[in-house]
C-alpha cells in the first residue's frame, strides 16, 4: 500500500502528472472501490479528466453487495457514464474492458479512418484511482502472462511504457495515483473500514463503531448470525460487549477488551466473514 502524504503540493503534482499522461491516451479507466464508489473517488476527477472519455470500473465487486453494485451501475448510466463491475484479482469482468474502451472512442477512430488511416492503432488507456483501489492488480491482470512492453514511442516521454492488452488495447504501465476526499469524516471511516487507508491513521475502535452502526442499520441479520446474538443492542457499547463476550475478548480483570472486539469486527469485514458488503448505495447515501 502506498504511503503518500497528500499535502497540497503533492496533490497539485499528482494532478499535473495525470494530466500530462492524458495527452497519450484515448480513454481513462476511473477505478473505484465497488463497496464505496463515492468515497473512493478523487474529489477533482471531473476537472482533472476534463473531456477525456472515461470508463468507470467498480473494482473489488467480489466483496461488494451485488444488488447495490447493480444500483451503482444504473446510477452512473443515468449520469451518462458507462460503469462495469470487475474483480481485478480473479479477472472477473476484466475481459470486457478492451471492447468497452473501443466503443467509447469509436467516433474518434471513425474520423481517423475517414482521414485515410486504414488500421487505427490500438485504443490507449490509463488507469487512475486512489491508493489501494487495485490499480496494480488490474494492470497485472490485463497484462496477463503476455506482459509485453511495447517500448518507447517517438514523442512519448521515456518513462511512458505501454503494455499490450491483446491486439485492441494498450495500457500505460504506470497508473495515475490520486488522492481521496479525506476531509470528510464519513469518507475517512468508509475508506478505513474497507482497508483503503491504513489502520494507524484512524482509531480502530472508532472505525469499528462506525462499521457496527452501519451494519446494525443495513445488515443486521449478518451481525446476528456471525456473532450469535439474540438481538442487536441499540447502545453501541452494549453491542461491543455482546460481541466481546461471545468471542471471549476479555481483559485480565474480566471486562471486555474493546480493542480486540474492534480488531475482530474489522478483520471479519475485510475477510468477508460477514459476507459481501457495500457501505454506500445511491439510494442510501449515508
Ligand atoms: N477481493 C479483491 N481484492 C482486490 C481486487 N483488486 C485488488 N485487490 C486487493 O487490493 C489490494 C490493493 O491492490 P493494489 O493493486 O496494490 O492497489 P493499488 O491501487 O495499485 O495501490 P497503490 O499502489 O497503493 O496505489 C491488494 O491486496 C489486492 O490484492 C479485487 O478485485 N478483489
Automatic annotation (TrEMBL):
GTP binds at residues 59-62, 132-137, 176. It comes from the Bacteria. Signal peptide: none annotated. One of its GO terms (molecular function) is GTP binding. GO terms for biological process: ribosome biogenesis; translation. It is found in: Cytoplasm. Its main location: cytoplasm. Keywords: Cytoplasm, GTP-binding, Hydrolase, Nucleotide-binding, Ribosome biogenesis, RNA-binding. GO terms for cellular component: cytoplasm. Coiled coil: none annotated. InterPro entries: G_CP_dom, GTP-bd, GTP-bd_ortho_bundle_sf, GTP-bd_ribosome_bgen, GTPase_MTG1, P-loop_NTPase. Residues 15-180 form the CP-type G domain. Pfam families: MMR_HSR1. Required for a late step of 50S ribosomal subunit assembly. Has GTPase activity. Binds to the 23S rRNA. Belongs to the TRAFAC class YlqF/YawG GTPase family. MTG1 subfamily. This is Ribosome biogenesis GTPase A.
Amino acid at each position: 500500500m502506498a504511503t503518500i502524504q497528500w499535502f497540497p503540493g503533492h496533490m497539485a503534482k499528482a494532478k499535473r502528472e495525470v494530466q500530462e499522461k492524458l495527452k497519450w491516451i484515448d480513454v481513462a479507466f476511473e477505478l473505484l472501490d465497488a463497496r464505496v464508489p463515492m468515497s473512493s473517488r478523487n474529489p477533482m476527477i471531473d476537472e482533472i479528466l476534463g473531456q477525456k472519455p472515461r470508463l468507470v470500473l467498480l473494482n473489488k465487486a467480489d466483496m461488494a453487495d451485488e444488488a447495490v453494485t447493480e444500483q451503482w451501475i444504473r446510477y452512473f448510466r443515468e449520469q451518462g457514464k458507462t460503469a462495469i463491475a470487475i474483480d481485478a484479482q480473479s479477472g472477473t469482468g476484466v475481459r470486457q474492458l478492451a471492447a468497452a474502451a473501443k466503443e467509447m472512442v469509436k467516433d474518434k477512430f471513425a474520423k481517423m479512418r475517414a482521414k485515410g488511416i486504414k488500421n487505427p492503432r490500438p485504443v490507449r488507456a490509463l488507469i487512475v484511482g486512489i491508493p489501494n483501489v487495485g490499480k496494480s492488480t488490474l494492470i497485472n491482470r490485463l497484462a496477463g502472462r503476455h506482459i509485453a512492453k511495447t517500448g518507447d514511442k517517438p514523442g512519448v516521454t521515456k518513462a511512458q511504457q505501454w503494455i499490450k492488452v491483446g491486439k485492441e488495447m494498450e495500457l500505460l504501465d504506470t497508473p495515475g495515483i490520486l488522492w481521496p476526499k479525506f476531509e470528510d469524516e464519513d469518507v475517512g471511516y468508509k475508506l478505513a473500514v474497507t482497508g483503503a487507508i491504513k489502520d494507524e491513521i484512524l482509531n480502530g475502535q472508532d472505525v469499528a463503531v462506525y462499521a457496527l452502526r452501519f451494519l446494525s442499520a443495513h445488515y443486521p441479520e449478518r451481525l446476528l448470525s456471525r456473532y450469535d446474538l439474540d438481538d442487536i443492542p441499540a447502545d453501541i457499547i452494549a453491542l461491543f460487549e455482546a460481541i466481546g463476550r461471545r468471542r471471549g475478548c476479555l481483559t485480565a480483570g474480566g471486562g471486555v477488551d474493546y480493542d480486540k472486539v474492534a480488531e475482530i469486527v474489522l478483520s471479519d469485514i475485510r475477510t468477508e466473514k460477514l459476507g459481501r458488503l457495500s457501505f454506500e448505495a445511491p439510494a442510501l447515501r449515508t
